[in-house]
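User: quick one, sequence for these C-alpha cells?
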C-alpha cells in the first residue's frame, strides 16, 4: 500500500512573534515583579496615615498661621518644582493641594492636618514656590521674607522637604534656603531633598543628578521622586511618618500604662 498524498494542502504556519532573548525577558520579568512587590507593613502604615490628610487652613502671612504643637513638615522649592503634586501623591488625594502647569499657583501657606480617627498628630505645609521670573519684584521680596521667617521661627517645624527639578539642579535660591535652615538642621530639624519629575530622566541622567545634588546638599538625604511613575512614594511616606513619630515617642506610646497603685521605686 502506498501512502496517498494529502488532498488538503497544509496551511502555512504564521510566523511567530519575535521573542525577546531570554536574558532580556528575565530582566523585564524581574523588574515587573519588583514593581508589583507588595508594600511593607511600615509603608502601609505610613501611606494610611498620609491618606488621613484634610485641608486645615490657608495663611498668606505668618501671623495667620495657627499655633500648633504637633510636628509640621514643610514642602519648599522653586515654582513648578512639583510640591503640590507631591503632597497629592503622598496623601493619595488628587486635588488636596492645588497643582498647576502655571508656575506660582500656590500663593499662601496651606496646611493639611494628619491623624487617624480625626486626632491631629501632624501637619503638612505646602509653601508657595520661589524663583518664578514673572512675579513682580516687591511680591518676590515679600515672599522671601515670609518664607525665611517661617523656616527660622516656626516652632513646631519638624522637617523640610526641598523639591528640586533635577534638570535645573539646586539653584541659587535653593542654596540660600539651605543656608537659612542649616542652623536648625544642626539642632535636629529633619531634611530631605527630592529630585522631582524623575520620569523625565533616563538612568544615566538620574544617577548624575543624584550625585551632583548630594554633593550640593552637603551629604543630606537626596532621593528621586516621580508622581507620574510613583517612584520614591512609599519611601518618602515612611520618612515623613518617622519624622512625625520618632522612636522614643512610639516606644512610650506602645508601653503599657503603669498601674497607678503600683509603688514607685
Ligand atoms: N512629568 C511629571 N510632571 C510632574 C510631576 N510632578 C509635578 N508635575 C507637573 O509639574 C507642574 C507643576 O506642579 P505643581 O505641583 O503645581 O508645582 P508646585 O511646586 O506646587 O508649583 P507652585 O505652586 O507654583 O510653587 C504640573 O504641571 C504637574 O503636573 C512628576 O512627577 N512628573
Ligand atoms: Mg504649589
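Assistant:
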Amino acid at each position: 500500500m502506498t501512502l496517498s498524498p494529502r488532498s488538503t494542502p497544509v496551511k502555512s504556519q504564521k510566523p511567530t512573534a519575535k521573542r525577546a532573548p531570554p536574558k532580556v525577558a528575565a530582566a523585564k520579568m524581574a523588574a515587573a515583579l519588583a514593581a508589583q512587590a507588595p508594600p511593607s507593613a511600615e509603608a502601609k502604615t505610613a501611606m494610611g496615615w498620609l491618606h488621613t490628610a484634610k485641608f486645615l487652613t490657608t495663611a498668606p502671612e505668618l501671623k495667620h498661621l495657627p499655633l500648633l504643637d504637633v510636628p509640621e513638615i514643610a514642602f519648599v522649592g522653586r515654582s513648578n518644582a512639583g510640591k503640590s503634586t507631591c503632597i497629592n501623591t503622598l496623601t493619595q488625594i488628587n486635588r488636596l493641594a492645588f497643582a498647576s502647569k502655571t508656575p506660582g499657583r500656590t500663593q499662601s501657606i496651606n496646611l493639611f492636618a494628619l491623624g487617624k480617627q480625626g486626632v491631629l498628630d501632624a501637619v503638612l505645609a505646602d509653601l508657595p514656590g520661589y524663583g518664578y521670573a514673572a512675579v513682580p519684584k516687591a511680591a518676590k521680596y515679600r515672599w522671601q521674607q515670609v518664607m525665611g521667617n517661617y523656616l527660622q521661627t516656626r516652632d513646631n517645624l519638624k522637617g523640610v522637604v526641598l523639591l528640586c527639578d533635577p534638570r535645573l539642579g539646586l539653584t541659587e535660591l535653593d542654596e540660600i534656603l539651605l543656608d537659612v535652615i542649616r542652623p536648625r538642621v544642626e539642632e535636629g530639624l529633619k531634611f530631605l531633598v527630592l529630585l522631582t519629575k524623575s520620569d523625565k530622566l533616563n538612568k544615566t541622567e538620574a544617577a548624575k543628578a543624584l550625585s551632583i545634588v548630594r554633593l550640593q546638599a552637603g551629604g543630606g538625604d537626596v532621593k528621586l521622586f516621580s508622581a507620574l511613575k510613583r517612584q520614591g512614594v512609599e519611601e518618602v511616606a515612611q520618612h515623613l511618618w518617622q519624622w512625625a513619630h520618632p522612636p522614643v515617642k512610639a516606644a512610650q506610646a506602645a508601653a503599657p500604662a503603669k498601674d497607678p497603685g503600683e509603688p514607685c521605686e
